[in-house]
Specification:
heterodimer; A: mainly beta; six-stranded mixed β-sheet; four-stranded antiparallel β-sheet; 10 strands; 0% helix; B: mainly beta; five-stranded antiparallel β-sheet; 11 strands; globular
Chain lengths: 115, 112
């Protein structure tokens, strides 16, 4: 596609339910990032995929959070047993790597509300 | 953990004035990037400055980088109402293999 696509745009879920957030990066972009942004705050790094390398999961806040990237393209961020503090906008970005100094392209995010 | 820290957290100026935002970071970097965010959704890339560059221009934007002080500034000249947004600096750190770390952002409000 022309840009990074995230779905759904908005998700309201009940506390304790599992949710899946999807990111479809720009074709050919080997690096994919997930960030979380709480209201009025900065971007909190969650996880980073680079090609076939093991993902950098150092930002995942708990073992309820997991992510995968199938076939080096689409990524899914899964939050199990959601809590109210998980409410935030989840942003995905992708970029070309292999050469330094490239910009990241962001999707429009998924606004997750846990009630 | 946050790498960049923007200053100020919020800034309100009159339309037509210049807006300056600062960013400080902690570790060695490959480059520093500035992004804009409207309405709390996707970020848009504004400008990238490499670690061996000191100043860069793009339209009404001017970015400086001082690696000795681990700081950068973003200047928006002749501000417009449409510049109202949040601005984030982001660092490509040398030790973290392409991981981009963002600061907390500056909320800029242009007054008519």
């Amino acid at each position: 596609g022309a840009g990074v696509s995230q779905s759904p745009s908005n998700k309201v879920t009940e506390k304790g339910k599992d949710v899946e957030l999807r990111c479809d990066p720009i074709s050919g972009h080997t690096a994919l990032y997930w960030y979380r942004q709480s209201l009025g705050q900065g971007l909190e790094f969650l996880i980073y995929f680079q090609g076939n390398s093991a993902p950098d999961k150092s930002g995942l806040p708990s073992d309820r959070f997991s992510a995968e990237r199938t076939g080096g393209s689409v990524s899914t961020l899964t939050i199990q047993r959601t809590q109210q503090e998980d409410s935030a906008v989840y942003l995905c970005a992708s970029r070309v790597t292999g050469t330094m100094n490239t910009e990241a392209f962001f999707g429009q995010g998924t606004r997750l509300t846990v009630v | 953990s946050q790498q960049g820290e923007e200053d100020p957290q919020a800034l309100s100026i009159q339309e037509g004035e210049n807006a300056t935002m600062n960013c400080s970071y902690k570790t060695s970097i490959n480059n520093l990037q500035w992004y804009r965010q409207n309405s709390g959704r996707g970020l848009v890339h504004l400008i990238l400055i490499r670690s061996n560059e000191r100043e860069k221009h793009s339209g009404r934007l001017r970015v400086t980088l001082d690696t000795s002080k681990k700081s950068s500034s973003l200047l928006i000249t002749a501000s417009r109402a449409a510049d109202t947004a949040s601005y984030f600096c982001a660092t490509d750190t040398m030790n973290r293999d392409d991981k981009i770390i963002f600061g907390k952002g500056t909320r800029l409000h242009i007054l008519p």
